[in-house]
Amino acid sequence: MAEAERIIGTPDTPDDSGEHTAAAEAPAASGASGTPATGERTAPAAQRSGRGRRIAVLFAVAVFAYALDLVSKMLVVAKLEHHAPIQVVGDWLELHAIRNPGAAFGFGAAFTIIFTLIAAAVIVVIVRLARKLYSLPWAIALGLLLGGALGNLTDRVFRAPGVFQGEVVDFIAPKGFAVFNLADSAIVCGGILIVLLSFRGLDPDGTVHKD
Length: 211
Known about the structure:
Distance between the termini: 77 Å
Order of helices and strands: HHEEHHEH
Radius of gyration: 32 Å
Number of strands: 3
Helix content: 55-70%
Shape: elongated
């Protein structure tokens, strides 16, 4: 009898088996289809979170560089301007307060307004580029550029002889080199870092390419 049932089968057995199989496959299919759907929902959120952290780093570096430059210039104007230079490392490095109408390191004194507009344009470009920023080294580099540009732009806007024609306060005077400030240093360091990242093929969005 058991052998006959095995050969012939009962009418309900295939249906039950099919129902159980379908029931078993339905959650699996649902889970399989649900996993990409969940991934699709969480991936953009993770990307936004990563980008948000990079933007936070960019602005944190910019604020630090800007604050350091601003405080140093306030101290120089209050304590060093119209005084004799202070020797830091003999005559190889001095603190010597001057007013610079030109660009970084004293270049282009006749183009103060042009350099002011360029600094403002750089700030706008960096802020716009931040929307596609996913690379931590690029965040640091752009933060240095932004902080330095804001530091010198503040002088251009608020210092004498007038708005957009203000002279930048410089005070770091190495022997045989132009006098500069911390904003200039931040700009140069940020620029060098960007060149190195470009040589390595790392883009601001985090992608790496080989030429």
